[in-house]
Write a sequence for this structure.
């Protein structure tokens, strides 16, 4: 996988988290935050494209696939369990914690310290969101906007380490 492809994937998911978080804000803030956030992410995609990073040869695709498969399985199981127990209000930040933890697997696949930084950021942000009232707009906003900021900050800035 090229460095730009990895960054583009991260920024695409940052956009999804941004829209999820902004959607929890009252009008007109959902449009202001959503619009400014999308504009910032577009700028980061252009920046990433211009970085012209070379491949390091360290990325192990099999480990990446395993990490993503385990992430999807954990999300499916957690979704089922939360819905079955009537705790669906915790779904968004629970998914954020799982997504955060899956970056440990990406570190295992590619060795970049930025994956561990992102794992820590998303896990802490979304764990905090789990402490908010379940299913509330504040929970959705913290999980969505916090995860978007973490993803955009790591995927869209700086060189790989």
């Amino acid at each position: 996988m090229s460095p730009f492809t990895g960054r583009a994937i991260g920024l695409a998911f940052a956009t999804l988290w941004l829209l999820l978080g902004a959607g929890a804000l009252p009008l007109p803030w959902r449009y202001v935050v959503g619009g400014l956030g999308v504009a910032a992410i577009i700028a980061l995609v252009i920046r990433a494209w211009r970085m012209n990073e070379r491949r390091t040869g360290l990325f192990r695709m099999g480990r990446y696939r395993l990490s993503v498969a385990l992430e999807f399985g954990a999300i499916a199981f957690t979704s089922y369990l939360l819905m079955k127990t009537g705790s669906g209000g915790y779904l968004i930040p629970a998914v954020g914690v799982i997504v955060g933890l899956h970056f440990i697997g990406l570190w295992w696949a590619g060795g970049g310290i930025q994956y561990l930084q992102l794992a820590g950021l998303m896990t802490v942000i979304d764990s905090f969101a789990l402490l908010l009232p379940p299913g509330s707009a504040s929970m959705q906003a913290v999980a969505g906007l916090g995860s978007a900021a973490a993803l955009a900050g790591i995927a869209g800035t700086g060189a790989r380490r």
